[in-house]
Write a sequence for this structure.
């Protein structure tokens, strides 16, 4: 499968899927498909890293398989595990004259294998986008589980052997850069850094997602969001939250984002009390 024919095709099809990709993003997305290399997308939370993988799936008609990373993630949740209860039932049901080698071969088969996202993506014959989300939240040891998949698009199961991909998935890893990833992982990936867009691009994103928004209000919204991101907040407003704010203004029929309107709707973009207090102070909003 050809994911994208060239960077311009990637840009156009991602746009049709609701994702406005700049030049570097479209080029890197094209290359990830053309070179069959995993794509590592790094940047602050809320800049569209996860959405890029979802947009690739929408644009190409591929199935999205997501591995959400977290502290404590292990092989049983990322790759596979055996259905031990079902295996035990089979052993109990087997005849007593069956030796262990026959029993072993009987219970370590596909019938008893519980596939998790990595193995599921490798085994699929249909076009697949594999999203390994927030990989920096896992323990360093988990990166070792990823290396075989990222290098050779295969998984080794001791009891069954090596399972190689018949159709390589489009792999996207995202990271908020809360810790440095190993060089071994980075070496196997193409790299893309996403940051918050400039004001013009964010206006384009918002107006494409919320077509009924007045352009003047969109400009006001983007200006306020930009000022909020300059503050030392626990959680800066994401692009998705900017879009939610725009939809909020339409729902409330607000045609001018003045101080009162900002104060009333600030909870759409700021989710911590301390961030509210800082924003009210720094933006000089009247607290009521």
């Amino acid at each position: 499968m050809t994911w994208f024919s060239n960077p311009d095709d990637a840009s156009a099809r991602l746009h049709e899927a609701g994702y406005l990709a700049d030049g570097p993003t479209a080029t890197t997305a094209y290359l990830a498909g053309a070179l069959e290399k995993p794509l590592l997308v790094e940047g602050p939370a809320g800049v569209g890293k996860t959405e890029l993988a979802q947009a690739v799936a929408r644009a190409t008609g591929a199935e999205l398989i997501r591995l959400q990373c977290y502290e404590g993630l292990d092989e049983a949740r990322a790759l596979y595990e055996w259905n031990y209860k079902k295996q035990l039932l089979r052993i109990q049901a087997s005849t007593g004259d069956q030796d262990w080698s026959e029993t072993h071969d009987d219970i370590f088969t596909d019938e008893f294998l519980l596939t998790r996202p990595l193995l599921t993506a490798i085994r699929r014959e249909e076009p697949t986008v594999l999203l390994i989300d927030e990989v920096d939240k896992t323990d360093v040891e988990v990166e070792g589980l990823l290396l075989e998949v990222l290098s050779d698009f295969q998984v080794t199961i001791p009891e069954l052997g090596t399972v190689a991909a018949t159709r390589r998935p489009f792999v996207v890893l995202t990271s908020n850069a809360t810790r440095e990833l190993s060089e071994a992982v980075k070496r196997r990936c193409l790299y893309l850094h996403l940051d918050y867009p400039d004001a013009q691009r964010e206006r384009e994103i918002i107006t494409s997602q919320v077509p009924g928004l007045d352009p003047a209000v969109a400009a006001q919204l983007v200006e306020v969001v930009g000022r909020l991101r300059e503050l030392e907040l626990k959680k800066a407003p994401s692009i998705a939250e900017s879009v939610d704010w725009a939809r909020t203004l339409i729902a409330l029929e607000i045609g001018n984002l003045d101080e009162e309107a900002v104060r009333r709707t600030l909870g759409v973009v700021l989710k911590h009390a301390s961030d509210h207090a800082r924003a009210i102070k720094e933006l000089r909003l009247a607290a009521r």
